[in-house]
Amino acid sequence: xxxxxxxxxxxxxxxxxxxxxxxxxxxxxxxxxxxxxxxxxxxxxxxxxxxxxxxxxxxxxxxxxxxxxxxxxxxxxxxxxxxxxxxxxxxxxxxxxxxxxxxxx
Length: 105
Fold this sequence. Notes:
Elements: H1 2-14, H2 17-21, H3 25-31, E1 37-47, E2 54-63, H4 66-80, E3 84-93
Antiparallel strand pairs: 1-2, 1-3
């Protein structure tokens, strides 16, 4: 709790409340302080042998940032799919629900 109080003190020292209200990512950043987020990561792989075979793989990663989630997923994809290279990968935050149906994704 002390960390959150210090965080707000620093933010409020540098910005006014109307300025904070104009920043849509501020609330998300405040709520995620000290917590990891689930990210849906998708990656496109291409076969190194002929370049014709393309695979799309997806997964959910828990990480501190989208870059960390994509990086970890990419490293695991290269390990799990030898002979393939990553063309591109992207990630986006998943809204977590505390219902059992949300855990089957």
